[in-house]
Specification:
Length: 122
Amino acid sequence: MITAWEIMTGEVVSTSPSCKVEEVTRVLYHHGISGLPVIDDEKHVIGMVTEADILGRQEGQETVKDIMSAPVCVVFQSTPLKEIAALLVEKRIKRVPVVREGRLVGIVSRADLVRVLASQRE
């Protein structure tokens, strides 16, 4: 059984709720990603910010806290791949943070799942 730990990206680009929207926009562009976790000082996941959040931004929304989606679905390192896939489909999300003891340790995206499926078929 393949778990989140085996397929997750461990070095996660994240942001804080106080970060300016313009800065997060540059981070997404620079890293070639479409969303990232919002974490507090203890690395607890408190939200997600995506390209859609930025594009839907309203007048006066200046910080990540103003536009992020919360609460956030998370998985544990031991969560099986099938459960992660079902969660992404059911919730219509593209990525899910992986936590250990409530703290961010990785992220699993749809692309990670597709990569695993493709490698199994080869």
